[in-house]
Every structure is written in C-alpha cells, then in structure tokens.
Amino acid sequence: MEFLSKRAKGIVPYTAGEQLNDKRYVKLNTNENPYPPSPEAEHVLRSFDAARLRLYPAPNADGLRETLARIEGVSPENIFCGNGSDEVLALCFPAFFDTDGAGACFADVTYSFYEVFARFFGVPFLTVPLKEKFYLDLSAMKEAKCGGYFIANPNAPTGVGIALEDAEAFIESVPDKIVIMDEAYMDFFGQSCAPLTKKYPNLLVVKTFSKSYSLAGMRCGYAVGNQSLISGLFRMKDCFNSYPVDALCQAVCTAAAEDRDYHEKTVELVVKERERLRGELLALGFVVPESKANFLFASHPSRGGGEIYSRLKDEGVLVRHWEKPFLRDFCRITVGTPEQDDILVQKLKKILS
C-alpha cells in the first residue's frame, strides 16, 4: 500500500554535496571552513556538563541571542536562532508569504534550496536571470510582481557579491516588500546589511555558524531584523519545533561568537588563500569570477565542468558540479588550506596536460 502524500511523491528535494567515505579525499565540495573552530568553543564542548542534557534547552536560545545582539549592535528581541540558517530560511516562507499571495522572487541561479522551500510550502515564486558576469539584476527584481525577495549575498554558487550601498538602495526602493538577505558567506566579504535592519523594517538578514565559525556540524543559524519580523519567525517555530537549538549547540556557538579575535583571524586566512587560489586557477586558463565567499566558481575553455569534476574525484579531490544548463561548464571549489589547494592545483595541471 502506498502511504506517501502527493506532496511527498511530487517534490524534488534539495541535493546536498557528496559526503563520501570510500577513500580519503581532499574535500573541497561543501564550503566547509578548513580551519578548526575557536579553542574557546572546543573548551566548552569538552567541559559541557552532560547532566544538563536530561533537561530541555532554552526554547528561544536567549543566552546566545544576547551574545549575537551585542555583536550585531541590536537588541536580543531583534535576533532569532534556528537549527542552521536553512531552517531559518525555511520558516521565512510560511512566516512572510501566503500560498495565494504575490509570492517570492529570487535569481534563477542562486541557492537552490529557495525553490525547494517555495514548492514545499506551496508559495508562488518567480526567478530573475542573472546579468552578464553573474551579477544579480536588482533592477529587474525591483520590477518583479512579487511579495518579497530572497537574495544570497554573496551569491551561491557564483560567489559574486553586492556592495553595501547597492544593497541598501535596493532595500530602500521596495519598502512594501520584505527583503531577506541570506548572508551565509558574508564574513568573507565584510559588507553585511545587518546594521541596516535598524533603519529598514522590511529587511531580514540571515546568517550561519557553518562557514566562518567552522561549526557546520553544530547546525546553528540566526536572523537579524525588526521585532515584528522576528516575532513572525517565532510564531512559525513554535508551530513546528519549540526547541530547535540544543543546549550543547547554544553553549558552543556562544563561545565561538564571543571569540572575536580567532574568528577574524580565520576569516583573514580564508580570504588570503581565496585570492591566491584564484590566481593559480587563472594562470591555468580557468575563467573565475571574482568571489566574495569562501569558494570559487571556475570553468575551463578546453574541459567541461563534468570532466573536471569526475577526473578530480578519481584523483582524490572532491569539488561540486551541477548538470544544469547554466552551471554544467563550471565547478564550485571550496577554498581549503594552502596545502589542500596545492594538491588541487597539482591535480588540475595533470588533468589539463
């Protein structure tokens, strides 16, 4: 007997990057930070009182919210925490969009979870093509008939960023529509819209601990915004899961967030290596848009993206590839340590020769 609903049978889920265990790989396919988390976070992890796990965690992650509020320069009432930024983004769809409303707008080439979430929650959506050189077409998005926007800045998988002044001009131009800025990679760019949430009530900024904090395994993300928007997320959370951020996660992420020196140092290492690796790829003849994230979007005129991906995999290096019309010529390459990236470049020279 078939027990699946029509929705379960019909929806196409998001496909995560490969997590392979058949051999040891240089893993540059899921944009994980190559450096360990803050030593302060590790200390909290090792000294955590396991007896606390018999109790439910703080349902709203109040301690973590207070720390994040200080960092972002807002009040705790302007912070919402969830089980990864993906959960926060998912809750945005039922919180801010109706199934029979104007719907959501996002780029045609961007984080593919937006479309999955829209279909899952039955929210109408439309996409706007990227401009030349992979820039988001903010002018076309402004004219789109929609109820709000999801904008990945820097964009994924291209890595192209939107300057803060351009982002603010766009937010200001659509005061009657919500703008959800997905800033998963923003720490590697340094032009966050979070301060603008105090000025624009239609702006919600979503961030994560997965990338710059090296805590992808903890699953924690958060949103910064006007109190009315944050209350909408809390309403959705409490209809779905009252305790999305566990006690250990709250403690570890608080420690990581408070260790500002380590965080800044790690970000600087990744940004420096990003520029070096891009130079190496350009020297090999790759086309590589200037990235503001912790990854590079690269194609080679003499090799298809699928060939580069599969041959690197055979050589023990994992990168990300999509068999889609716009993306198939490119591979997305996470910035690793200099040692990891040297192996990547060595293997690419072998493949291209």
Give the strand line-up of the largest sheet: 2-8-7-6-5-3-4
Helix content: 25-40%
Structural class: alpha/beta
> What does the overall shape look like?
globular
Helix and strand succession? HEHHEHEHEHEHEEEHHHEHEEH
**Hey, roughly how much beta strand do the residues contain?**
5-15%
Give the C-alpha Rg.
Answer: 20 Å
What is the total tally of β strands?
Answer: 11
> Count of helices?
12
Low-confidence stretches: none
> In this structure, how is the largest beta sheet organized?
7 strands, mixed
How many angstroms does the end-to-end distance come to?
Answer: 55 Å
pLDDT averaged over residues: 96
Your description of this structure?
By secondary structure, the chain is of the alpha/beta class. 38% of the residues lie in helices and 13% in strands. It has helices at residues 6-10, 39-47, 62-72, 84-96, 113-121, 138-143, 164-173, 227-237, 247-258, 260-283, 305-314, 338-352, and strands at residues 26-27, 79-82, 104-107, 125-128, 148-152, 178-182, 203-208, 221-225, 295-299, 317-318, 330-334. α5 links the parallel β3 (104-107) and β4. It is globular. The model has no long low-confidence stretch (mean pLDDT 96).
Short description:
With 353 residues, this protein is α/β, with parallel strands linked by helices. Helix content is 38%, strand content 13%.
